[in-house]
Amino acid sequence: MFISVNEITETIHMIQSEHLDIRTVTMGISLLDCIRSNPRDTADAIYDKIASEAGRLVPECESIERELGIPIVNKRISITPAALLIGKGTRDDAVYLAKQLERAAQNVGVNFIGGYSALVHKGYTDSDRVLIESVPEALYETSRVCSSVNLATTKAGINMDAVRDMGLLIKRAAELTAASGGSACARLVVFANAPEDNPFMAGAFHGVGEPGTVINVGVSGPGVVKAAIEKVRGRDFTVLAEEIKRTAFKITRMGQLVASEAASRLGKEFGIVDLSLAPTPAVGDSVARILEEMGLEICGAHGTTAALALLNDAVKKGGVMASSHVGGLSGAFIPVSEDEGMINAVRCGALSLEKLEAMTCVCSVGLDMIVVPGDTPASTISAIIADEISIGVVNNKTTAVRIIPAPGLVEGDTVNFGGLLGEGPVMRVNPGRSDDFIARGGRIPAPIHSLRN
Question: What does pTM read for this prediction?
């Protein structure tokens, strides 16, 4: 891939002044060939394969960082959804697998390993049920394992039994890690239409349609986009969209370079570049501040959803021109606790749970890193999930919920998770009860427009 001198100069400036980085290089590994007759033997074989396949991942990424001068913030692994691997195992067997995944992640030096996951959008298998029931304990016993559950698709509808169960499991995971504000829930996400090549945590898993081993890269540059649109302050929306597209193109080119280089050095297939504007708690690295630079007084003001829609669309359009393999989620993330502008908007009262839900209709993911009072009923958490997931199903897009009921905390409190997870202000939840609605169970049918054949 040809990179011009001007592109190199611009990239250096973006890295030094505007928080541009490779947010993650994620190695996806198929573990289907590790299945044995005994689930403990399967877990041991999985440990061995991860150690073998990913042993050079971190050193090679660090070498690329030194040689190209491009920061690679996270090195991660995604695996085949674990529910497909445990067979007739018990909950204890599933937790043993989680511990082996943790041990493997520590051994190879990655910060997270994703794929302690189940795909239950149309119903449960026995192994799905075992794995999902083990999630709270598995997350409590580990620090690098991430879990996800896909419980709806546009083609299948919404598995409301799973929605009900996830409310209870999220509460349980929070209670087990009450000392850290319910931090286990930061590694647990529920999806509609989950992508199989997503390199970002906590939702990454290696889909069964993926190659045996693949390198996926996630690029992020909110600060770069904000700096770019500062140059067109006051200009019309066509000019604004074009500036974002050009900037997204440059960012994606950098991701393509790193992804190709990492795949080549590791002898693995290159998968996708995921261009997602994923913020951090650092000042100058905020999606909310991009929206405010467009002309909003504060994120959450009227016009925020329209601004986010423009941003998300322009980012995707610019990215697909720079790489033939843009995938994953690709767009704008709005995780509250990980974005200093979002945190400020919540504290000022400008951004509510209801406004965030409206914004998720047009962004890349959904209600992400939302902290709610610890006494929020499990049925209410399930209902929040159902609302968000229905947006994804009806609009044929990926949506997700990563919600944290912080034990002992109430609206207005703050919980500090540290690092990239930031700090979350506890948000108000509508006090109306949803118990009878969630208790119905069953499946919400797929929308009529899912019948496309």
Answer: 0.92
